[in-house]
């Protein structure tokens, strides 16, 4: 059975077993000191990794809760309380990232909108035609062997070996043609 202490004493409010070497998160003054000194850093790191204010606040709370529970295991010889809490937070952030990865459907509306735009948004039809015409015009300025090599290797994404076999030339020759063609294209004005 627990004994009652007078209100004037500052008693540990944390888990039993805290010692003189604990992190002092089990006392009101200890937790207040950590909040004053490290809450902003903990929140910044969580926001940077998670990108969500609510999840970042949850991560900071979970970090402090885990620190409070493990207060007696803190070893001052291994580092400061801040370093210890940052290690705990790294583990909390990893746990949250794993949960989010295992449930891809649990996302905020803002995230869903960004994903939908990235999947559906593309250049419009007119832009695709104008880009194609520009590429065609630029390729027309190249000598025929270089143009053929670029079309096969770059535009059709074929292997150098396959193109060399089709052209009946060494692989090095195809690589050289592509190299010089790209160098020539870089020097041409874009409005060509």
List keywords for this structure.
192 residues; Arc Repressor Mutant, subunit A; 2 domains; rod-shaped; disordered N terminus
Q: CATH superfamily assignment of the largest domain?
A: RNA polymerase sigma factor, region 2, helix turn helix motif
Please summarize the sheet with the most strands.
Answer: none
Low-confidence stretches: 1-14, 109-122
Number of domains: 2
Radius of gyration: 31 Å
End-to-end CA span: 89 Å
CATH class of the largest domain: Mainly Alpha
Give the helix level as a range of percent: 55-70%
Q: CATH topology of the largest domain, anyone?
A: Rna Polymerase Sigma Factor, Chain: A
Would you tell me the overall average pLDDT?
Answer: 76
Q: Classify the beta-strand content into a percent band.
A: under 5%
What is the element string, with H for helices and E for strands?
HHHHHHHH
In the CATH hierarchy, the architecture of the largest domain is Orthogonal Bundle
Describe the oligomeric state of these chains in a short phrase. Answer: single chain
Question: Helical segment tally?
Answer: 8
**Any idea what the shape is?**
rod-shaped
Number of strands: 0
Structural class: mainly alpha
């Amino acid at each position: 059975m627990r004994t009652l202490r007078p209100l004037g004493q500052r008693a540990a409010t944390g888990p039993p077993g805290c010692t003189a070497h604990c992190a002092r998160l089990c006392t009101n003054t200890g937790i207040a000191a950590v909040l004053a000194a490290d809450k902003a850093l903990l929140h910044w790191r969580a926001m940077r990794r998670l990108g969500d204010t609510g999840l970042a606040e949850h991560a900071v709370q979970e970090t402090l809760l885990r620190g409070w529970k493990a207060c007696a295991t803190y070893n001052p010889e291994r580092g400061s309380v801040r370093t210890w809490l940052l290690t705990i937070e790294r583990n909390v952030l990893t746990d949250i990232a794993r949960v989010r990865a295992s449930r891809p459907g649990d996302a905020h509306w803002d995230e869903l909108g960004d994903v939908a735009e990235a999947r559906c948004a593309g250049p419009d039809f007119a832009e695709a035609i104008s880009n194609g015409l520009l590429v065609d015009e630029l390729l027309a300025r190249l000598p025929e062997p270089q143009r053929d090599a670029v079309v096969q290797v770059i535009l059709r994404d074929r292997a150098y070996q396959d193109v060399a076999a089709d052209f009946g030339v060494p692989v090095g020759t195809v690589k050289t043609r592509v190299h010089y063609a790209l160098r020539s294209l870089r020097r041409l004005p874009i409005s060509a």
